[in-house]
Amino acid sequence: MAKKKLTAIVKIQIPAGKATPAPPVGTALGPHGVAIMDFVKQYNAATESQVGTIIPVEISIFEDRTFTFILKTPPTPVLLRQKAGLDKGSQTPGKAVAGSVTEADIEEVAKIKMPDLNAFDLEAAKQQVRGTARSMGLVVK
């Protein structure tokens, strides 16, 4: 069987288990002619165990309007907000402190994010997570 020709790659962030054909899914996939309901059903089935978390997805769309998708790990700020128990980060990072996370929380988030980070070891991944925490106005204790 011949390889299918790739026409587009679409990246969107959707709450796990709660995708609907409404925006952002419909507006992202509609122009490519993909069966939106098929994607929504498959995505919701694949993410039903993580309901409530935002899961980025990378959708590869082929010439014959079929698609495949790859689920990524949740964004680092989302994981850090959950650990700190916050709704959002600081309005003025560097000046106002929004909350704090422990070194153990940083390590846990780094382990979760490791497959999607461009870090060679856990220590480098922890540095990236610390930087994100700092830019959100979180203090690492």
UniProtKB/TrEMBL annotation:
One Pfam entry name: Ribosomal_L11_N
The keyword Hydrolase belongs to this UniProt entry's keyword annotation: no
Ranges of residues in domain Large ribosomal subunit protein uL11 N-terminal: 10-67
InterPro entries listed in its UniProt record: Ribosomal_uL11, Ribosomal_uL11_bac-typ, Ribosomal_uL11_C, Ribosomal_uL11_C_sf, Ribosomal_uL11_N, Ribosomal_uL11_N_sf
Stretches assigned to the Large ribosomal subunit protein uL11 C-terminal domain: 72-140
One Gene Ontology MF term: large ribosomal subunit rRNA binding
GO biological process: translation
GO cellular component terms attached to this protein's record: cytosolic large ribosomal subunit
Keywords tagged on the record: Ribonucleoprotein, Ribosomal protein
Similarity section: Belongs to the universal ribosomal protein uL11 family.
HAMAP family the UniProt entry points to: Ribosomal_uL11
Protein name in UniProt: Large ribosomal subunit protein uL11m
Phylogenetic placement of the source organism: unclassified sequences, metagenomes, ecological metagenomes
